[in-house]
């Protein structure tokens, strides 16, 4: 088990009853169980106007960057809008860059009302790569969120296990640039064995 790892969940949904927030909370609970400290950064609590290029510190941008930079691993989670990730997350990421993300392990989670959200996950992966983050190969896409999430939790057992694994891998691989072969063969990030 890794020690002194801080995992930040960055939620791109502004809805009160959000399947994205539900999934991020579950992943953070798994990260906590794997020995990390965790934090959910709720973009509803931040004033972040669209980035215009002239004011890098508009609104709460400096506070956002500080919280992202302090994390050893970041979970980017977003609902899918028109085949991509949501504008609140895009705006937050526009205020961040390599100073906050370079060398940081990033996990990806996308939630869709319809089919599997492959394009949104690809778009988030491209942005993470552009700012120098190391993105976990494991990513979680939740399609048909209405059937997958109910009563504040993920009801599909296989999907719940995958979200738990994502949270555990954020802890296990925080600070690494690739999956070490020996770790892949001998370490189970879910159980810690």
UniProtKB/TrEMBL annotation:
Domain NADPH-dependent FMN reductase-like: start-end pairs: 6-143
Cofactor: [4Fe-4S] cluster
Top-level EC class as recorded in UniProt: oxidoreductase
Gene3D superfamilies, A to Z: 3.40.50.360
EC number per UniProt: 1.-.-.-
Recorded GO MF terms: oxidoreductase activity
Keyword Oxidoreductase in annotation: yes
UniProtKB keywords: Oxidoreductase
Family, as annotated: Belongs to the SsuE family. Isf subfamily.
Name of the molecule in the record: NADPH-dependent FMN reductase
